[in-house]
Amino acid sequence: MIIDAHVHIFPSLKYTVSRYNNIRFSPQLDQKTIRDMWGRMKTNILDERYIPGLGEDVNFRIDNYGKFYWTKNGKECWMQRFPAILRNIEWPPEQMIASMDEIGVDKAIIQAGYMEMNFEYKYFKEINEKWPTRLFGTITIDYDIEKDRNYRQKQIDKLKKITTNISSIKGVYQAFPRGQKIDDKEFEPLWKELLNMKIPHIFYVGFQPKEKYLQSLKQIEKVLRKFPDLVGVIGHLGGNIRPKRNKNYSDGKELLKVLKLPNVYFEVGYVLAYENWKLWKENYQYPYPLHTEFIRMIYEEVGCKRFLWGSDMPNLYRTCTYQQCLDLVRLHFDFLDEEEKKLVLSGNALRVFRV
Ligand SMILES: [Zn+2]
Fold first, then answer.
1. What was the pLDDT predicted at 121?
2. Which residues are CB-contacts of 253 (< 8 A; sequence separation ≥ 6)?
3. Is the domain of 119 the same as that of 158?
4. How far is the CA of 352 from the centre of ligand 1 (A)?
5. Residue 73 Cα, ligand 1 centroid: separation in angstroms?
6. CATH number of the domain encompassing residue 347
7. Which residues does residue 69 pair with via DSSP β-bridges, in sequence order?
8. From ligand 1's centre to the CA of 8, what distance in Å?
9. Is the Cβ–Cβ distance between 12 and 90 less than 8 Å?
10. Model pLDDT for residues 11-61, shown as the tens digit of each residue
11. d(CA 39, ligand 1 centre) in Å
């Protein structure tokens, strides 16, 4: 049995699917991701003066093969946001299943976040009905403590209704706007409800300045200490992997405090952190020696019982193939024995997501 704890499926994110409205958030949000992903994804320029400002008119465009384009300071700039194998940023469930079959993956957890949240859960529901034993969903809600209690209660009610009606929803992905103080007591109804429903919360951390990143890890730690039965998952290797000379560089040890808690899980296989040759040089190359070193460091402190293999398909194809990502664990993690590899590739995910 092999379970991929991190995949995505979406209808064309470039074009609205005719029977749905408001599938995407807005081009403004797409434009904002350029700043969030700067120094991570491939761009034709590394100089920060070319990052578009919030709401700045830079003639933002998306081509047919995953590239974002804009014009700033007289220069035509691009970022490879989605892999070029996706035409019009579409990754249908059939293609995800075919990819899983190709390399022998049995089940996958679809992480939420690319679509407007109400659209998204309806879309996942249709997928789950067609492939009830292969694909499992997660949902997101807008538990915003800057809005009133009544609004938040409605979000919790929606979460309860969806998870009750759609049995294949196995987790909640980033249930709150980033940057909010999640150890505030106003957040407790959310954590208690997740405990009640016995579903994990996947945190979207990192992809932000170091101070904010460290702050968010501290808050996650506080919450998961206070609610020891609440299960938290941290993906993207924490989200702030940067080369040493970058101002947001940290060595990964900042994650250990939270990962040492028994109710925290960590995704391995996120090699997209090392996708940019201009930044990483030889370390960008398969089998990603810095990724292995990083996971081994955590393994030595925490063990392997909290590792979940997650590919981030189809985005993974910005770096290597699906087969190669699986083989990272199977062939290249020589610090794990066979039983430990089984835990990373399925045993731990079975416990967390109960699929
Ligand atoms: Zn992802």
1. 86
2. 297
3. yes
4. 18
5. 31
6. 3.20.20.140
7. 61, 78
8. 6
9. yes
10. 888 776 444 455 555 677 788 889 988 888 999 999 999 999 988 999 999
11. 18
